[in-house]
Amino acid sequence: MQLFDLDGTILDGNATLLLYYFCLKYNPKVIKYGPSTFAKLAKSGFNPAVFNDQPYPFRFIADTPGIHYTLDQFGEYLSDRIHPIFHERKKDEDIIATGSPEFALESLSKNLGVEIIGTKIDVDTGALNSPICIGDEKLKRVMEHINNEKIDTFYYDGDYDLPIENIAESTHILKKGKIIKSITH
């Protein structure tokens, strides 16, 4: 089984940030969440886990009326931003894991024909229903999903996923959809 990280690895961009811009298009008032959110993220060294202690880190989603009706469009938009390496290497049993909101990626999951594990949020409030799906949390969620089977190959961008790199048989670090380093364990 191969595991792919999404944001900045096989996706040109970050799905959460792209979702924010997408919501902004439908409700310009959500711009009010941008400055404080980006400031907190920058202060943390751009570590998304900083939001684990924030009561409603995805409030911009809850404040976007009809968000459920626009997610197919969002999935299409993301599909167009997937780097070719994913399509070239994808197998039926492969999985994508990401820190981005899982509910917003259902359409992308269908379009790509792959399961996506992400951060669970309450769409009505923007509250987290799980810790941000990165690092140890991502490893835990993936291992639960695959019943502790082995990960043959892991594709990621080198950020926050060292726990998975350490257990995968081989890893490929990608930048802009290109392999820049390969490691066999």
What does this protein look like?
By secondary structure, this protein is an alpha/beta fold. It has one domain: Rossmann fold (3-Layer(aba) Sandwich). The protein is 36% helix and 18% strand. Strands 3-2-1-4-5-6 form a 6-stranded mixed beta sheet, with helices on both faces. Helix 4 packs parallel to helix 6. The longest helix has 13 residues. The protein is globular.
Share in β-strands: 15-25%
CATH top level is: Alpha Beta
| CATH A-level architecture | 3-Layer(aba) Sandwich
Q: How many helix segments? A: 8
Largest sheet: 6 strands, mixed
- Arithmetic mean of pLDDT: 92
Stretches with pLDDT under 50, minimum 5 residues? none
CATH fold label = Rossmann fold
Secondary structure: helix percent: 25-40%
Q: What is the count of distinct domains?
A: 1
The radius of gyration is: 16 Å
Shape: globular
Strand order of the largest sheet: 3-2-1-4-5-6
> Gap between N and C termini, in Å?
15 Å
Run of helices and strands: EHHHHHEHEHEHEE
Quaternary state of the chains: single chain
List how many beta strands DSSP finds: 6
Short description:
This protein has 185 residues and is an alpha/beta fold. Helix content is 36%, strand content 18%.
Give the key terms.
six-stranded mixed sheet, Rossmann fold, 18% strand, single chain, alpha/beta, 185 residues, globular, 6 strands
